[in-house]
Amino acid sequence: MQTECRTAPRAPNGSSGHSGPGVGGIRNVPTPNSPMPGPMPVPTSLFAVALLSLDGVGRVTAHRLLERFPTAEAVRTAPREQVLLRLKGVAHADRTVDAICDPAFDEATEAARAQVAALAGRQIHVLTPGATGWPPGLDALDRADRPVVLYAFGDLAALAWPSLSVLASAPLAAEPFERAQDVARAVLARGRGLVVGAAHGVDLALQKLSLAASVPAVGVVGAGLARLERSMRPGATALTKAGGLLVSPFPMAHGPFEHDDRERALVQAAIGRAVLAVAPPPGSPEDRAVAWASDAGRTVGLLPPAPPDATWPASALPVDDPHAVAEWVA
Fold this sequence. Notes:
By secondary structure, this protein is of the alpha/beta class. It contains 12 helices and 9 strands.
């Protein structure tokens, strides 16, 4: 009976020559002024990207492995029973362990290395849980909702800025649209930042307010960074040049798909220290993200008027004074 993986010899660097599907189209991502050397790939990010290339490996499986084994080598040298224990209840656990132990997995690792290096050359960070720059708020998400990899373009310091996540879905009526901007101005005036979406309407308006206040903003894209809507790219360029950041939990060339809005909203809510929901329609991605934030113990403010049939969490705070919201973001 096999008690541990056989450590397979590593393929030479660059042997695969495959950069992975996520690299295509990254030339469309805006480039900031004065480019600096990109981040160096780290073993965990390479293992994470390679893991996600395996058939049948999703977030739950990847997180369970990465929480205990930061590299393929760690899996291969551990007792097999210990690895399988981490994957208890996961479908095809034996097949996954066999795939990591197979020498062919080294080719997936080298493909991941090429992909991450290509992204680094374009100042795109590939973040994994526990890595420098990883937003700690994401760790509160369930494994099934928590990104295994977060792609980021711009200044990672924006993620450490005390920020308010503003959840709003277009189109907004005039009253909540104006009130959301009033709250944003009050928050920005106190030197706090905003975590917004990357769509037209209120997201774009709040990005512009952040630029005017010289406070870095974080924009969460509901698709791969290379799939950012063309009309939004000038604003994205301005945001990153001003010290802001674009982030996405999706591979570079992924989407856009409407069903991904739920994940985008959850990531957006998790990054900020508090959440402001702007009249979220019942059952919308924003409404569900508000429910998660409330259950997770985050401070949640709701900007009335409430849509018809809305059922807001009992712990949520109606926002009457925009200046009070800045106090939530310590």
